[in-house]
Amino acid sequence: MPHGSENRLGRSLFGANGTWVLISCYHALVAPSLSANGSERLPAEAAAGVALIETRRLSKSFAGYVAVDDVSLAIEAGAIHAIIGPNGAGKTTLFNLLSGFQRPTSGRIFLKDDDVTGLDAPRIARRGVVRSFQINSIFTHLSVLDNVKVSLQSKTELPGRFWLPSTATKRLEPRALELLVAVGLENERDLLAVQLAYGRKRALELAISLAQDPEILLLDEPTAGMATADVGRVTQLIASVARGRTVVLVEHNLEVVAELAQRITVLQRGKILVEGTYDEVRRDQRVIDAYLGGGAAAHA
Ligand SMILES: Nc1ncnc2c1ncn2[C@@H]1O[C@H](COP(=O)(O)OP(=O)(O)OP(=O)(O)O)[C@@H](O)[C@H]1O
Ligand SMILES: [Mg+2]
Q1: What domains can be seen in the chain, in order of their start residue?
Q2: Which of 19, 20, 83, 92 to mutate to test the pocket of ligand 1 (most atoms within 8 A of CB)?
Q3: What angle do CA 183, 15, 198 make, to 5 degrees?
């Protein structure tokens, strides 16, 4: 298991306040390498160093309560960038701003140097930013397979047609099945989505998002509520789909963060506390102070 010793330290460093949920064991399940359109993308490294998403002094207040506070952040093209922090730190609100679900109170958002501040979610999505794990992305009374086909259809077919007859969507089936295999849902293909357990619904949401073949994938706690075996599988899947894509990941499970993220931003009370690699962040005294009250990690 990679990062074994780091994860033990990570557990003692971050686990103490009870809000950090860590799962100690991975299953080495290898999801097939895929890009959602079936083609090879450019290696991620090719674009490294370029800020794909940038926020400048971004803030969001709710009735005077500042949930995101003056956040200036650069997400490099091709990176997996994790946003971590305790409950209520503003991680989901930051995602809501990046994906156009909420408008910032102040500050700017740039996508490939274009100012996209204030654009709504559909417009942001058309620019290649897809946010996963909104539970309403699932049609609960369609089958698991049809849910993925609807998503493929919305990407490829006439936008005005909600649901084409099964003969017309038959050609989408091989790709839909490929995505279900990738997230480990092939055996549940004919179940209604409503019948899936919580963790399996999240796997379906990932397949639905991947069907959109996003350039930038925002994942809000992709492993929350999952069984250990599913966590390992989804971690491998994220690593696989991240090749040639940019992934921004909000995650409480620090083993997943250590495994996946090249860069980590720690948010606390809406502000950036620390930024760096996993090793830099876990050793940072400000993080240690924030989560352990100082000193304890030195003995971990
Ligand atoms: N629509 C809203 N109206 C009022 N307050 C809100 C709203 N959305 C978020 N908040 C508040 O903003 C703060 C940040 O919330 P947010 O959901 O972004 O945190 P988070 O870091 O995602 O937390 P968690 O780890 O629990 O998911 C919280 O105090 C929350 O109560
Ligand atoms: Mg959240």
Answers
A1: 5-47+78-102+120-299 (3.40.50.300)
A2: 92
A3: 30
pLDDT (0 to 100) of residue 20: 33
8 alpha carbon – ligand 1 mean position (Å): 29
What's the 173 CA to ligand 2 centre distance in angstroms? 33
Per-residue confidence (pLDDT) for residue 15, from 0 to 100:
39
Residues with CB under 6 A from ligand 1: 62, 65, 67, 85, 87-93
pLDDT, tens only, 167-215:
667 889 999 999 999 888 999 999 999 999 887 888 888 889 888 888 9
Low-confidence residues in the chain, pLDDT < 70: 1-49, 133-136, 156-168, 290-300
Nearest CA residue ID for atom 18, ligand 1: 90
Ligand at minimal distance from the CA of 84 is 1
User: What pLDDT is attached to residue 156?
Assistant: 64
- For ligand 2, the distance from its centroid to the CA atom of residue 170, given in whole angstroms, is 37
Beta strands in the chain (DSSP E): 51-62, 65-76, 80-84, 106-111, 114-115, 129-132, 216-220, 246-250, 263-268, 271-276
- Cα distance between residue 227 and residue 199, in whole Å: 7
First to last CA, the chain: 19
